[in-house]
Amino acid sequence: MLAGPVLSACSSDDPADGARAAAQAFLDAWTGGDLESAAGDTDDAAAATTLLQQTAEDLPDATLTADLGEVAVGGDGDTTATATWTATWDLAAAPDWTYDGTLDLRRADGDAPWQVVAEPTVVHPELGEGQHLQLGRSLPERAPITDATGAPLFTETEVVNVGVDKAQVTDLPSLAAALGAATGVDPATITADVEAAGEGQFVPVITLRRDAFEAIRAQVFDLPGAVFPTSTRLLAPTARFGAALLGRVGDATAEVLEETTGEDGLPLYAGGDQLGLSGLQRAYQEQLAGTAGFTVSVVSLDTTTGDTGTVVGTVDPVPGSPVQTPLVPAIQNAADAAVAGQSLATHLVVVRPGTGEILAVSSNEAANPGNALSGQFPPGSSMKTITATALLGAGTVTPDTPVPCPGTTTVDGREFENEDQFDLGTVSLTEAFAQSCNTTFIQQALTLPDGALSAAAAGYGVGTDWQLPVGIFAGAVPASSTGTTEAADAIGQGEVLMSPAQLALVAAGIASGTPAAPVEVVGAPAAGAAPAGPGQAVLDQLRPMMRQVVLTGTARALGDQGEVYGKTGTAEFGSNVPPDSHGWFMGYQLGGPQGDIAFAVLVEAGQSSSVAVAVTDAFLSGLSG
């Protein structure tokens, strides 16, 4: 007796259940991207197909999520129904757009299937016949990357857009050749771009800062067809300012930070990849860019009506928030000027002792700027600061211990030598360090316990996997090596590698006595645990040795630069005979114009440490000036 009522209650003959199922099937097909099936669930498949395809064009790359609400069956013998639903559009490069809608459904009679009525209100309740949706996206003001004081580093700067007006060209090959010679842009590319351009279209060649344009003005200004409209762009203070750390956007020559548009002519937003970002600009793209806004309007399909439309959805853009770096413009500018005076690829990284803050990262035009932070180079004799740390820590020698400094020494049949095989006889460890005696440090290092050199390096953070927005190569010193490799490691050859940034961190650790993890962004999570350091007793012995390098040793040229400590390095590389060499200087200055600073200079293929010392001299002079 109970079976009948239960079956009746669960029956699928309820008209509302059928209407709900039909509405859900339509929404599932639509949200799943199957527009053909969705249109087939309506009473006019052709009209629905046109409507849904138009909406897909109106909201490019958007995805729809639908939440079906209440379904009510009306009169006329239960042949009409209304379903409420909530639409959420995940708009490309904009926030979500959510609104409530209504689907009308009908069926021919009580036994016929339900169908969604194919009318514009299916898409939006305010959409009418002959209308469509129009999406407009708006970018907020990009937040600045700032210096140590919070002042923006990227500011609106006048630029000259060097280009071609096709209508004014009289001799395209000659024009392309002249523009190419002046700007470095391939003439073939210029020719192809001009030929492909429509009449009256401006054809861009390159965007230059005003000072860079003035340097080529005489070469290009009177060329028939060349034009030079000006504008402003968000640029760093100079073309190379902190390039490895700050990053650039798109065209590295123009160094542009600007709104970029997609194929639909709408501004792109979140595109770290789309914008070609690098450095901190890429790492903090989301924070700097903020959140884009949008406006959706209902407008006439007939573009000749002048209909400006009715706004049916809008969200204001939200500005980004700044990213503060520890960069100090006065130090960065002095570093940039110093490396610019060297024709070979040159890098200079400056660190604040005790904090690990990166105060300047500089590379000249000849260099790959990324090598300042992530380059992997043999450090040569600048490694002797770490070797000396291990020796002093082992307690077998002191700065005053007499040690031999022969012109050559042989390890497992391989001969190692000092520069030009200089022979000092027996001298103190301090003198051997100041004169950079390879043979002394090889002989002494071979007496160290296994792993002592690697442990000394780790005390300064060498080998640490720093977790940074812009990666720094932390160096590599093998924990175990033998024979000739062990000998070579002691003088910064063999398997030892270092970046300028990490060597500057080593110098900062010696200067302060408290080695620190590197800091690229103020307030960011620590890049890693602070290195342990060698201990005060070792530092008290090592520092006077580094001072002697400047007073009487291989960096005597820095003797008039105040209280400077350091170590030179000449690092052989490659297969040439005799081998080529990089030039290094690492050290620190106490009580200088910018307070205590530590630094490392690398001149790639400089052949001698003297070139790195000269760059350091120019840098420190620039700080004083």
Q: Approximately how much beta-strand content do the residues carry?
A: 15-25%
Question: Roughly what percent helix?
Answer: 25-40%
The assigned structural class equals alpha+beta
> What is the number of helices?
20
| Average pLDDT over all residues | 91
Query: What would you call the shape?
Result: elongated
For the record, give the distance between the C-alpha atoms at the N and C termini, rounded to a whole number. Answer: 105 Å
* Beta-strand segment tally: 22
Classify the fold: give the CATH topology of the largest domain. Beta-lactamase
Q: Can you summarize the main beta sheet? A: 5 strands, antiparallel
Q: Uncertain runs with pLDDT below 50, 5 residues or more? A: 1-11, 249-275
Biggest sheet: strand arrangement: 15-14-22-21-20
Number of domains: 3
Can you tell me the CATH class of the largest domain?
Alpha Beta
| CATH homologous superfamily title of the largest domain | DD-peptidase/beta-lactamase superfamily
Task: Give the structure's gist in a few sentences.
This protein is α+β, with helices and mostly antiparallel strands. The protein contains 20 helices and 22 strands. A hairpin with a 6-residue loop joins strand 20 and strand 21.
